Amino acid sequence: xxxxxxxxxxxxxxxxxxxxxxxxxxxxxxxxxxxxxxxxxxxxxxxxxxxxxxxxxxxxxxxxxxxxxxxxxxxxxxxxxxxxxxxxxxxxxxxxxxxxxxxxxxxxxxxxxxxxxxxxxxxxxxxxxxxxxxxxxxxxxxxxxxxxxxxxxxxxxxxxxxxxxxxxxxxxxxxxxxxxxxxxxxxxxxxxxxxxxxxxxxxxxxxxxxxxxxxxxxxxxxxxxxxxxxxxxxxxxxxxxxxxxxxxxxxxxxxxxxxxxxxxxxxxxxxxxxxxxxxxxxxxxxxxxxxxxxxxxxxxxxxxxxxxxxxxxxxxxxxxxxxxxxxxxxxxxxxxxxxxxxxxxxxxxxxxxxxxxxxxxxxxxxxxxxxxxxxxxxxxxxxxxxxxxxxxxxxxxxxxxxxxxxxxxxxxxxxxxxxxxxxxxxxxxxxxxxxxxxxxxxxxxxxxxxxxxxxxxxxxxxxxxxxxxxxxxxxxxxxxxxxxxxxxxxxxxxxxxxxxxxxxxxxxxxxxxxxxxxxxxx
Length: 522
Fold this sequence. Notes:
Layout: H1 3-11, E1 14-16, H2 28-36, E2 41-44, H3 52-68, E3 76-79, H4 99-104, H5 109-124, E4 129-130, H6 155-171, E5 175-176, E6 178-181, E7 197-198, H7 202-207, H8 211-218, E8 223-226, E9 230-231, H9 232-235, H10 246-256, E10 262-265, H11 271-274, H12 279-289, E11 294-296, H13 300-315, H14 321-338, H15 341-349, H16 359-372, E12 374-377, E13 392-396, H17 412-422, E14 427-430, E15 444-449, H18 456-468, E16 472-476, E17 491-494, H19 500-510
Parallel strand pairs: 1-2, 1-11, 2-3, 3-4, 4-5, 6-8, 7-9, 8-10, 13-14, 13-15, 15-16, 16-17
Antiparallel strand pairs: 12-17
Helix pairs in contact: 3-15, 5-6, 5-16, 6-8, 12-13, 17-19
């Protein structure tokens, strides 16, 4: 096989991101990767996305560049639109709930409808691949990176919801990707910052973490993302992450589970790889382990180094041409089911704004939010009484907690505005201010928590308030596990995300304008 043929095949295995903010034109570095290195896949992040018209123009120019460069098939253009706390497109599209809120509805059709809407709107923007659904079983309340990105704690609950989300995306002709195999739910550290370790037996994994993935494969999953998590059951104490593990990818995922779709890596610039074997070598090792698509989300020089490392290892015999050929053929086959040049270029030329944030989509989303927001406690306390004799203090955190996977948009002002609309006399202070003696003379306290179960400072405040005040209402705007440290409050509200829609729904439910119907899925 010629060097040019190999370079073309290797290019189809790279998923490249770039750091330019809201580009009006394709960055020259990315254009060069597409034209000279035949990179066949692009991933977009919030930093790349401004208006819907800008992202539509960007995806069109990316596809046009690939077509003119002689690519046999269109580009996969991907993003992480899980919804909820992890989403890359924020403006101009329908705000949709994340996994745990959907899991709290008790109705898998909500996952399907969310998948359909997400897919339709992404495709309208020229994005044809979604790095979702999350199929992790969140069975660790201290998990710092998955949490509400999971559909819940029960593996069989998770498998049905994740599958329906994927089916909805597929219905809209967008490729779905189950993540993070073999499961990132029972970890207590973040793979953005190191290599988390799971020491369960294979028997345990097969009864919990692996259940949603096995079900997905049985039901025709086309793409699975492997994690940077180390599993003792597969690789002993070697600290090898799943992304580099032949035991996990080739032996277990391919042979034992008989998965014949695309194996995608989590970003190879995360610390678990970049600060150990290094991203370029990690890319080659991951292909040796059986991965098809190598995600490198940020730096062009690192992407180029990875391509050259792969080609060098091929020349040295550390990688076989058959590895590359097999992955190339798998990529080609899946692309053929979703993409062709005529449809891609024609549809990418115009923006169908009618498919974005339509009234129909908004109504479906509103129904799901109402079915998912959860209230636990004294039902007779609702609706909250509003009159001149009741003084309410609303206590909010100074800033929202967030993980490395999130973009950190803070919508708490929405909740404050909504509460003030229903109860104009409410007073608002920060967590820090609430610890002073000036906050003792109120009849009702509404405390907003943001993953307090993992934050000692918030826990200290909550315990102090519990000791001093009566009539406390807690609004957990992220982790519902905050209930663990709030056993004595009158009402506990879980919104699962600090989105505008979830917060407005919670406020409306407290004051009796809607009924929140969710049940805790953990």
